[in-house]
Specification:
single chain; glycosyltransferase activity; EC 2.4.-.-
Length: 291
Amino acid sequence: MQNFPLVSVICLSYNHEAYVVEALNSVINQTYPNLELLIADDCSSDNSIGVIKDWVKNHPEVHFSTNEKNLGNTKTFNQLAKIAKGEFIIDLAADDLLVPNCIEKQVTTFQNSKYKNLGIVYGNLIEIDENGNFLNNYYNEEDCPESGDIYRMVVGRTTKICSVSSMIKKSVLEKLEYYDEDLAYEDLDLWIRTSRDFEFEYIPEILAKKRIVSDSLSSHFLIENNLRAKKLNESTLKILVKAYHLNKTKDEHKALLGRIRFEMYKFIKAKHFKLLFKLFLLEIKVRLKSI
């Protein structure tokens, strides 16, 4: 490694009382020497704020802010990203963990990459349960993700995206005008918009641990008569409409059809039939463009 550019780790907490200290310790115990840590609590109803305040007493250099009302991930992240001083940024949920050499591997990859327009590096991770026990590897040999121009991979859902193990250039976030604050979740939209204009590089090593908990965001997409599920699926529809307008080729539209069919299943399971109708209309438009 030729130098040590500053890396900003943004840790977002919402009712993560049981996990947040372990997450924060995984940041300060990195092998990489030049970090800043910014923490925000999004108006937790548990004792997350008290736990973080106690931890910060021993780490006065760490930035900690609290929201007076729940703003959601996108707005809370953007608030911190705009004041972050790092050349690179990591978005870390307060129930996930970075392995000790995660940031060192990511920065080294940025510095030594063959890709000249690199926007994001990402790696493999392991999924753990609420007690920290191993569940499985996120990627295996059969679904190894791509590097370079991965737009079709992301739009078409040919391989799962892994935002938990990713690092992005702050200049890329600035160009994209950060997370879309109208959305209830951010990773798919960010990866689609980033991969349209920038290259990605996959690091075939375990870089993080993603905790699978009963009330995780991903578990809400399929819940019937649930306001959070409705907001999530409304966001998905907005993201797919964006992808439709970003697509440039017939092959990209064909790839988008695959993701639309996958999302239709979620809408049906959650009984969001008005959204399903709108998605069906979008599918017609995409199908016509793919011919």
